[in-house]
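Chain A, query sequence.
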Amino acid sequence: MLIKKIFYFYSKKHRERRAKLFLNLLNPTPKDKILDLGSGDGSYIANILPFRENVYLADISEKDLKKAQKKYGFKNTILLKEDDPILPFPDKYFDIVFLLFCN
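Chain A, predicted structure.
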């Protein structure tokens, strides 16, 4: 149990540092089109951005994308196919592309 608490403490601090770095370097605004690639359920980007309008989540998990819509109010979700991960957008469509995790 102690190890779990220690891990959570440090992972939380690490997430906070990454979030602060993202916000300071990129200074996203509600007008920016932001792609969160490999978004999972959208929990990370939901906790660092106060807006949802131009945020697009892309992931291979339909379950996670549905959770992102229901729990965090994201409307722009893209289900990626593992064997064909092509996004349906023209080049330079997004102002910011965010990728936190990649397996």
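The mean pLDDT is 84. The helical segments are 2-26, 43-48, 62-72.
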